[in-house]
Amino acid sequence: MFASAPDLLRLVVLPVLGWTAWRDVETRRVPTRTWYPLVGLGLLLLAWDAVGHLSLATSADVLFFVRVAISLFLVAPIAYGFWWIGGFGGADAKALITIAILLPTFPTYYFLGFALPEVVTTLGVFSMTILTNTVLLAAAYPLALGVRNVLDGEVRFPVSFLGTRVDVADLAEAHGRLYETPDGFSRNGLDIDALRMYLRWRGLTLDELRAAPERFRAPGSVGDTYDPTDGAVDVGGDGASDGSANPSEAATGVESDGGISPERDGEVPDETDGGDVGVAAEADDPWAAEAFLDDIEGSAYGTTPEKLRGGLDVVSEQEEVWISPGIPFLVPMFVGTLVAFTYGDIVFGALGALGVF
Q: ∠ CA 68-69-74 to the nearest 5 degrees?
């Protein structure tokens, strides 16, 4: 294989994205520090490439800077905008912004008798190709979810294409949101990370809460409280996280995936004096939901007392529950990037095959 030195160095993004995709599936958490070396490398390679085009002597020189501008000032803001409205998790947005810096133009890799990528778009913005590939691949997720549910006999439109039915006991290691509330189905149910935060705050397991729901529904039952962590499944791990599709993260500094929180050491700290919380919970506050949200830092992924109470009622009363698992978006992003490096743009290539281009 032959390629320019900058293009060879850009290949480092593939193993990194592969690792983050695995983390997204397993924990919905990716350390923010993962992206710093890639951003630094991207800026260095961008300057390296720009030096060769500074003369603006040819149309190719002008096109280079146009493509870089589109990548930096269109693709990157799109990533930020989707995070802001809740369409992307924190890790998803950071990954795409990193790609916009590291891969603004199409790289070229020469092999014996052929070159990759096979399909290069007229626009020539590689980060845009990765974005369109990712979105197209991610769109297949609800279809796959629906097919699996139908084959399992769970036919309920549109729920079967947006959620999955799980045992309540499995929520301890699940990701996403409850798709059920006391009033019926809703995609805006309780975030399962927030549920774990609440249980850790009270020092309870889900089994304990389900065994005596009336006892723990009483607000005065709150005793000593504990650090709720960020709700990650791997609370014993590094705890660093990215990835929640929660717009309130910008204000709270908490992120959840992919996916999201500030970095923590992953340990559950010693218990704190819960006296004040216990007094506050004596008010009309079922499950001490309001006391919990008042006591913690941040908003627990946009959770309100009413939403928390509703979610706790559901998980305390039912054996199975529908959840909206969300898309581990870094998985289609990794696959979309891999496809971009080898084949190129999926949509552009398909249109070309149909004779549109």
A: 110
What are the phi and psi torsion angles at 274 (to 5°)?
-90, 10
For residue 357, the model assigns a pLDDT of 52
Q: Is 344 helix (H, G, I), strand (E, B) or coil?
A: strand
Nearest of 207, 205, 222 to residue 293 by alpha carbon: 222
pLDDT digits (tens, 9 = 90+) for 27-68: 888 999 999 999 999 999 999 999 999 999 999 999 999 999
| Contact status, residue 230 vs residue 197, Cβ threshold 8 Å | yes
Q: Which fold would CATH assign to domain 5-140+329-353?
A: Four Helix Bundle (Hemerythrin (Met), subunit A) (1.20.120)
Question: Average of pLDDT values for 268-278?
Answer: 42
Residue 31, SS3 per DSSP? coil
Q: Answer yes or no: is pLDDT of 136 > 60.
A: yes
CA quadruple 148, 153, 155, 161: dihedral, nearest 10: -10
Which residues, in sequence order, are CB contacts of 251 under 8 Å at separation 6+? 299
Distance CA 71, CA 357 (A): 23
Mean pLDDT of 13-30: 94
The domain locations on the chain are 5-140+329-353, 164-229+268-324
Token representation of residue 190: 């309780």
Nearest C-alpha neighbor of 259 from the set 89, 112, 117: 89
- What's the pLDDT tens digit per position in 148-187? 888 888 888 888 888 899 999 999 889 999 999 999 888 8
Distance of alpha carbon 101 from alpha carbon 43, whole angstroms: 7
